[in-house]
Amino acid sequence: MLMKKTLVIFYAIIIYAIAELVWWGYMLVNLNPSRKGMIMGEGMMFIMVFLVGAYFLHKSLNKEAKLHEQKKNFLLSVTHELKSPLASIKILLQTIQKRDLNREQILNFIDKSLLDVERLDDMVENMLLAAKIENRSYSFPKAEFNLSVLVDSIVNRLQISKCDCNQQIISAEIEPNVKITGDKFALTSVVTNLIENAVKYSSPCETVFVKLFEKEGRIIFQVADHGIGIADTEKNRIFERFYRVGSEDTRNTKGTGLGLYIVKEVLDKHQASIKVKDNRPAGSIFEVVFA
Asked: Is residue 169 within 8 Å of 207, Cβ to Cβ?
C-alpha cells in the first residue's frame, strides 16, 4: 500500500514538473520571440533528459515494489513452514506423553519427529546460508571429499514415501568414488535443495531420478522429475532470490524461494554450471556440471 502511494506521488510530481516546464517555456518565448528556437531546443533537451531519468527511477521503484512483495510472501511462507513441522512434533510428543504406547509405536513417533526436526534444520541452514551469501560474509572453504557418499546419504535421508504403498520415490544411480574439491557444507545444500524441489513439485508416488557420474573429465549431477514443469518464461528467473514458480494465488506447494537462489550462488563459486531442461512427457531436469 505504501509503495502504491509512493508511485502515485512520483507520477504526480513528474506530470507537475513537465507542466511547469512547458509553461515557463511558453512564457520565455513570449518574452523573447527572437530566441524561440534556442528556448524550444534547450527545453526539448531538458525534457528528454528529465524523462529518461524518470524512466529509470520508475524501473527502480517497480523493482523495489516487487522485491517488497516477494519479501512479504517469503515471511508468510517461512511462518507456515515453521508452524507445520512444529505442530506435527508437538502432536507426536503429546501422544507419547498421554497414551500408553508400546515400544514400537514410541519409536515410530520418535522417527517421525526426527524427520520434522531435520526439515526444520534444512530450512534454518538455508536461511543462514542465504544471509551469509547476501552479506558476502561466507568464504566457501574448499577441500576434497567423496561426492558419491554425500549424494547417497542425502538421497537416503530424503527417501520419504508420499503414498500409502510405501514405495520409494527417489531412484538413484550414483557412480561410486566420485571425488570433488569444494565446500562440502554448501554443496550439501545444493544437492538437498535440488532433490527436495523435485519431490515437492511431483505428485504422490511419482519417482524422482537422481544421477551422479563422470564423463569426459567432468562431474555431472542430474535431478529429474515428472512434476508440473517450468515454463520457458520462468526458467531465467527461478534462481532469483525469493522468486517462486507460479502466482501466490494459485500456488499450493510450500517453499521460501531461497533454495534455487542458494544453488546458483554456490555453483557460481565452484565454477560450475546448471541447466534447466524439460523432461518428457512432463516435468523438469536440473543438470549440474562441474568442469
From this structure: yes
Spatial separation of the C-alpha atoms in residues 140 and 272, rounded to whole Å: 14
Residues 160, 230: Cα–Cα separation, whole Å: 24
Contact between 288 and 273 (Cβ < 8 Å): yes
What cell was used for 70? 516477494
pLDDT of residue 253: 55
Asked if 129 and 140 touch (Cβ cutoff 8 Å), the reply is no
In this structure, how many other beta carbons lie within 10 angstroms of the beta carbon of residue 245? 20
Question: How many whole angstroms separate alpha carbon 180 and alpha carbon 131?
Answer: 25
pLDDT in tens, 250-280: 345 556 678 898 999 999 999 999 999 998 8
The crossing angle, in degrees rounded to 10, of helices 103-134 and 259-269 is 60
What is the C-alpha to C-alpha distance for residues 131 and 136, in angstroms, rounded to an integer?
8
Q: Which residues pair with 214 in a beta bridge?
A: 219
Does residue 256 contact residue 127 with C-beta atoms inside 8 Å? yes
The residue to which cell 513537465 is assigned: 18
pLDDT in tens, 10-31: 677 777 777 877 777 777 777 7
- pTM here is 0.68
CB 209 within 8 A of CB 150: no
Q: How far apart are CA 9 and CA 287, in angstroms?
A: 46
The CATH H-level (homologous superfamily) assignment of domain 143-290 is Histidine kinase-like ATPase, C-terminal domain (3.30.565.10)
231 three-state secondary structure: coil
Question: Phi-psi category of 271—alpha, beta or left, where left has phi over 0 and alpha has psi -120 to 50?
Answer: left
* Strands 208-215, 170-174: pairing kind: parallel
For residue 145, the SS3 value is: strand
